[in-house]
Amino acid sequence: MADSSSVLCSQTWPFSLDWLPPQACLVGGAVRDALLGRRAEYLDLDFVLPVDAVKIARKVANHYQAGFVVLDEVRQIARVVFEAATVDFAQQEGDSLEIDLQRRDFTINAIAYNPHTSQLIDPLQGVADCRTGVIRMVSPLNLQDDPLRLLRAYRQAAQLGFIIEPTTQSAIRQLAPLLGQMAAERVQVELGYLLNSPQGTPWLMAAWEDGLLPEWFPQATAQRVGQLAEVNHSAAILAATWPDLREELETPVGGKSSSLLSLARLVKFLPSVPEAAEEQLWRLKYSRVQMRVVLTAIHYLPQLLSGATSQMSLPEQYFFFQNVGSVFPAVAVLAIAEGITVDAIAPLIERYLKSDDQVAHPTPLVTGNDLIQVLKLRPSSQIGTLLTQIQLARIEGKISSYEDALEFATQLLNSD
Question: Which part of the chain is CATH 3.30.460.10?
Fold first, then answer.
C-alpha cells in the first residue's frame, strides 16, 4: 500500500477514488515519480480507463465544479483542472492495458498502478530502470511516431539525473532529423526545461552533438554551444559575490517557462547578428518579452566586452544602462563567460545593484512639463534632448538640484 503522502495514495487526489472503475490505472510520470520518491506541490495525474474516459471525466468535473476540456475527441482524452492538480483521463489504446503501455515512449513512463488493488503493472521492467537510473526506449517506432520524444529523453535525463541507455541514444541519433517536423511550440517547451537549470546543460550539449538541434539552430557552432558550461560557471561566480544578482537572474521572464539566466544560455545557440537571431526566435514562437531580452543581450554584449577593456565614460555608461535596463544581469553573465574578468565589470554591477545610482537608475531633477512651463517652450523633440543633457550634467557632478537643472537648460538654450 502506498504511504499517505505518495501520489499513489488516492487520499492525495482532488477527487474520490469511487469515480474510477475497477480497471482504471494511474500511468506515466506520476507513477515514475512516486517510485523515485519525487514530490510535487501541484499534481499532474494521468489515468487510463478501459471505457467511457471522457464521460467519466465530465462527471468528475461537474461534481467538483472543476475545469473541463476534451483534448482529443477521437482518442477520447479529456482533462479536468482542479486548483492544485491537473487530471487527464484517456481511453485505453488497444485491447489491454499492456498494449497501451507498449505504445509509450520510455520504460520508466510505461508503468501503471491500479489504486483499487494497489498493484503495479510493469510489463516492460520500467521499475528496474527507475532503480538503476536508465532511460530506455520502448521501441524505435514509438519514438518515430512522436519525434518530440527524442528531445524529451534528454530533458528527462536532466530532470531525473538519469542516463540514456546506449541503444536508445543510438536510435535517437538516427531519428534526429525528424525533430524538425514538430510544432515549434512543443519543441520550445522541451528546450525550456533544459535551458532552465544547470543540470540541463550537459544534456543540451549532448542533444546538439546527437543532431537534434541543428534544424532549429542552423547557425549555432560547436564552439558556442560548448560555452554553455562557462555561462553556468559565470552565473555561479556572480551569484556568490552578489546574491541580489542571483535573484534577478532567476526571476521568471514572460511566465514561468524562462528566466534571465535561461535566456542567456539560449544566446549561445543563436547568431551574433540580432536580425538573424530574431528570425530563429520567431520560428520557435518565443514571446515578445523573451525575444526582447535575448536580442538586447546579443546587441549590447559587444559594447560591454569592449567597455570592460577600455573603460566606458560616464555618459557611455548612462546610455548603456538606458539601453539594457533589467537585462543587464544576463549581459554581465555572458561577458564573464566570454572571458572578461569580474573585476573589470564589478563597478557596473555595483551601479546596477544600487537603486539610487543616477547612472544606472536615473531619476529626473526636472520633467518635460517643468521645462515647458518655466522656460515657455513648446512640446517638441528639443525637450527630450534637454532632459538627456540635464541628466548627463547631473551624473558628471555639474548640477544637483531643480534650480541647477533649470539654469543649465537655460544656458543650453542660450548657447543654441
Answer: 10-126
Overall average pLDDT of the 334-358 stretch: 94
Closest CA to 345 of 252, 193, 262, 242: 242
The predicted pLDDT at position 1 comes to 46
pLDDT tens digits for range 298-333: 999 999 998 766 688 999 999 999 999 999 999 999
Spell out the alpha helix ranges (H) of 325-380: 328-337, 342-353, 368-374
Q: What value does the mean pLDDT take over residues 105-122?
A: 96
Q: What is the CATH number of domain 10-126?
A: 3.30.460.10
Going by the DSSP 8-state scheme, the letter that residue 354 receives in this structure is -
* CB-based contacts of 140, cutoff 8 Å, min separation 6: 171, 174, 175
Task: Kindly report, as residue ranges, where domains of CATH 1.10.110.30 are found in the chain.
Answer: 133-212
d(Cα 349, Cα 238) in Å, to the nearest integer? 9
What does the angle CA 184 – CA 161 – CA 202 come to, to the nearest 5 degrees? 60
Read off the pLDDT of each residue in 364-381 and give the average, rounded to a whole number.
91
Q: Residue 175, Cβ neighbours under 10 Å: how many? A: 18
The backbone torsions φ and ψ at residue 22, rounded to the nearest 5 degrees and listed phi first, read -60, -30
What's the average model confidence in pLDDT over 247-275?
A: 92
Q: How far apart are CA 171 and CA 331, in angstroms?
A: 38
CATH C-level class of 133-212? mainly alpha
Q: Which residues are CB-contacts of 61 (< 8 A; sequence separation ≥ 6)?
A: 67, 68, 80
Measure the CA–CA gap between 107 and 126, rounded to whole angstroms.
4
How many other CB atoms sit within 10 Å of the CB of residue 110? 27
The H helix count followed by the E strand count for the chain is: 21, 9
Predicted confidence (pLDDT) at residue 4 exceeds the cutoff of 90:
no
Residue 62: its pLDDT value, please? 97
pLDDT in tens, 142-196: 999 999 999 999 999 999 999 999 999 999 999 999 999 999 999 999 999 999 9
Which of 90, 96, 102, 93 has the alpha carbon at shortest distance from 126? 102
Which distant-in-sequence residues (6+ apart) come within 8 Å of 257 by Cβ?
A: 188, 189, 192, 196
Cβ pair 228, 265 in contact under 8 A: yes
Q: What is the DSSP string of 100-141?
A: HHHTSSBGGG--EEETTTTEEE-TT-HHHHHHHTEE-BS-HH
